[in-house]
Specification:
The complex is a heterodimer of chains A (213) and B (282). Chain A has a single domain, classed as Rossmann fold, CATH 3.40.50. Chain A has 6 helices and 10 strands. In chain A, strands 6-7-8-3-9-10 form a 6-stranded mixed beta sheet, sandwiched between helices. Chain A has a 4-stranded antiparallel beta sheet with strand order 2-1-4-5, covered by helices on one side. In chain A, helix 2 crosses helix 3 and helix 3 packs across helix 4. The two termini of chain A are 21 Å apart. Chain B has 282 residues and is an all-alpha fold. Chain B has one domain.
Chain lengths: 213, 282
């Protein structure tokens, strides 16, 4: 998979939140987005995911333009902002409902993904009763369970303990080795540097520089 | 889209707000049942004393005179047909706002696309809203049928339905068919009113405000219709808020009821489509 952003600008209420962003990202890599709060990292990820259209410029997935040739990347997993699910259902039921839309994975795969992120598939507790860390793990499970080609994760290690962070880092590397294109933002510089093959530094909506790990 | 629709319907019909709205609707409609029970106790002795066995009810005591949508003297009817837009919006009308604010929206649209998401969401909101209005009306008929005699309503006793009212001839000849059709009308109006929740989009911050949106909009439409009626001297009921009851104060011919359902559904779906699929993409 190849993701191209060409001169992407985004203006919201006359404020420029993305300023002439141009980048080319390829599958089998993990790309990190680094920058202070409000610098435009999450907005950039939302544009890449097709959730928001750029005011000008193009976002292309394998040569096909988002918003013109297709609405969303054909195979995408997301964890943007806080993980959110149906509060009155278990983690397994929530993932089964999501997976039921595209039928790309079986119930066995979903159970395996839950175990991979450190959750018990047979846990009878509803999402409402999950701890913050469990919610985060479920959010990551939802993003990767269908083995998408493009994975966008915003602050994947939020609320996780050290063991959880290690588990998630291993999982994200596994997805990269499978050939997926991963884009992540993280406030913890050491995790971002450890995981990422390349890091884009963003300030005021502009990609100032990139560093290669 | 079929799988997405199944998932949305499952969510709409398996959430506490759906059950709460259904129970609340049934409780309000049971006020009418209690009123009818009191009437039944008062009139029963007279009916038995007269040994009345005819097909017409000379006492005005018939299932189809006391059933909530046609019983103009019932407090239960008054209350139910005042709050029905709120009941309709309660089960699932808030779900778009919740999913949008919570982030579940992202998970869903990235899998099914915006148009499919909106269409399936609208259908689920429509069906859940329609059920919450129609089921208490139907249950009210069934519960009243356990103690009210099934006799044809008499034109002398039912003064509120006459020529110019919705399927009036059917009402006096095949009342059970009329009753079932009216349940269908309430289902359509309830569903269309629930769809008006999309008009609010994500502008409102509280779910309760989204639930109140259809009621507020229909109140405004009601005020406009009342003003137009008095200005031009029309004797046809145009307000959807009033049209949910079978016996509004003005005529409710079939074309008016049908048009009201269509216009409500069209407005709700159209504005919602613009909000969800186009506007909030910008």
């Amino acid at each position: 998979m190849k993701l191209n952003l060409e001169h992407v600008n985004k203006t919201i209420k006359k404020a420029l939140v993305l300023d002439d962003v141009t980048m080319t990202l390829e599958g089998g890599h993990i790309y990190g987005l680094k920058g202070p709060n409000g610098s435009g990292k999450t907005m950039l990820m939302r544009v890449m995911a097709g959730l928001i259209r750029p005011t000008s410029g193009r976002v292309c997935v394998d040569g096909r333009q988002l918003g013109r040739d297709m609405d969303f990347p054909p195979s995408v997993g997301l964890l943007l902002e806080n993980p959110s699910f149906l509060p009155n259902h278990t983690g397994l039921k929530n993932l089964e409902l999501l997976a039921g839309i595209q039928h790309r994975v079986t119930s066995v795969n979903i159970r395996q993904t839950l175990q991979d992120v450190g959750l018990n598939p047979d846990d009878p507790r509803t999402f409402r009763k999950y701890s913050l860390g469990m919610k985060q793990r479920l959010g990551i499970a939802a993003a990767i369970m269908e083995q998408p080609d493009l994975i966008l994760v915003d602050e994947p290690t939020n609320a996780l303990d050290d063991n959880g962070i290690q588990q998630i880092c291993t999982l994200l590397r596994r997805e990269r080795d499978r050939g997926a294109l991963l884009i992540l933002s993280c406030h913890d510089a050491s995790i971002l540097e450890d995981l990422s093959d390349e890091i884009f530094h963003i300030y005021d909506g502009k990609v100032e520089r990139r560093t290669i790990s | 889209m079929k799988t997405g629709l199944k998932a949305e319907l499952w969510k709409a019909l398996h959430n506490p707000m759906f059950y709460a709205a259904l129970i609340l609707g049934c409780l309000i409609s049971s006020i009418n049942v209690v009123e009818n029970l009191i009437t039944a106790e008062q009139i029963k002795s007279i009916i038995f004393a007269e040994d009345h066995t005819g097909s017409q009810s000379p006492w005005g005591f018939s299932l189809f005179l006391l059933w909530m949508p046609v019983n103009g003297a019932s407090y239960g009817r008054y209350l139910f047909y005042l709050v029905w837009p709120v009941l309709a919006a309660m089960p699932f009308g808030w779900s778009y706002l919740q999913e949008r604010r919570g982030g579940l929206f992202n998970q869903l649209v990235s899998r099914m696309g915006r148009k499919s998401y909106y269409v399936t969401k609208y259908i689920a909101v429509f069906i859940s809203g329609g059920l919450v209005v129609a089921v208490p009306v139907l249950l009210n008929l069934l519960v009243n049928a356990t103690f009210c005699p099934y006799v044809l309503p008499n034109i002398l006793n039912m003064l509120r339905i006459s020529d110019g009212y919705f399927l009036s001839e059917l009402y006096f000849t095949v009342p059970w068919a009329y009753a079932l059709i009216w349940c269908g009308v309430d289902f359509l109006l309830g569903g269309a009113a629930a769809g008006l929740c999309f008009v609010a989009g994500t502008r409102l911050r509280l779910q309760v405000m989204t639930i109140l949106t259809p009621f507020a909009l229909l109140l405004v439409v009601d005020a406009v219709c009342t003003a137009l009626r008095s200005r031009f001297g029309w004797n046809v009921e145009l307000s959807p808020l009033q049209l949910a009851t079978a016996v509004p104060n003005y005529f409710n011919p079939e074309w008016v009821v049908g048009s009201a359902c269509l216009i409500l559904a069209f407005v709700g779906f159209g504005i919602g489509y613009w909000q969800v699929v186009h506007h909030e993409l910008a």
